[in-house]
Amino acid sequence: MLRTLRAEGVDVSAASSELDAPTGLILFEPRLPDVTRVHYYRAGSAGSRLTPGVLDRAFATTTPRVLHLTGITPALSPTARAASAHALHLARERGTPVCLDVNHRSRLWTADQASAVLRD
After folding, report:
1. DSSP for residue 43
2. DSSP, res 8
3. CA pair distance 111, 1, nearest whole angstrom
4. How many other C-beta atoms lie within 10 A of the C-beta of residue 83?
5. Three-state DSSP class for 48?
6. Which pLDDT belongs to residue 22?
């Protein structure tokens, strides 16, 4: 994934890896024209292990032009939720514009839980 991002011109110098954790994955299986089966493989993924410290290291190397947050990451685990909030804090501190894609996944958390976290 990092190689592909680099090839697209994305600066991945602050990226980190969890070598003993799988990459989260979602698969869409079209069954009929109107029916798609969705399979999630996120439990124990590297994304679910994200911590605020990773964001400190990333922001220490550069200030992003834009921070894009998704509503999926904070739903993955308490540490990923804390990391998302910390990223928002760091971006605000540096005057970085923030883009939020709510991308609500009801299998990960309820609308009320998502709303309570994503209002910030």
Report:
1. T
2. T
3. 31
4. 23
5. helix
6. 87
What is this structure's pTM? 0.81
Token pair for 47:
């994304």
Phi first, then psi, for residue 65 (nearest 5°) are: -70, -35
User: Residue 20 is inside which H or E element, if any?
Assistant: none
- Per-residue pLDDT reduced to its tens digit, 41-52: 888 888 888 899
For 71-110, the DSSP string reads SSHHHH-HHHHHHHHHHHHHHHHHT--EEEE----TTTS-
120 pLDDT exceeds 80? no
Q: What is the pLDDT of residue 95?
A: 95
* pLDDT > 90 fraction of the chain, expressed in percent and rounded: 53
* Bridge partner residues of 98 (DSSP): 67
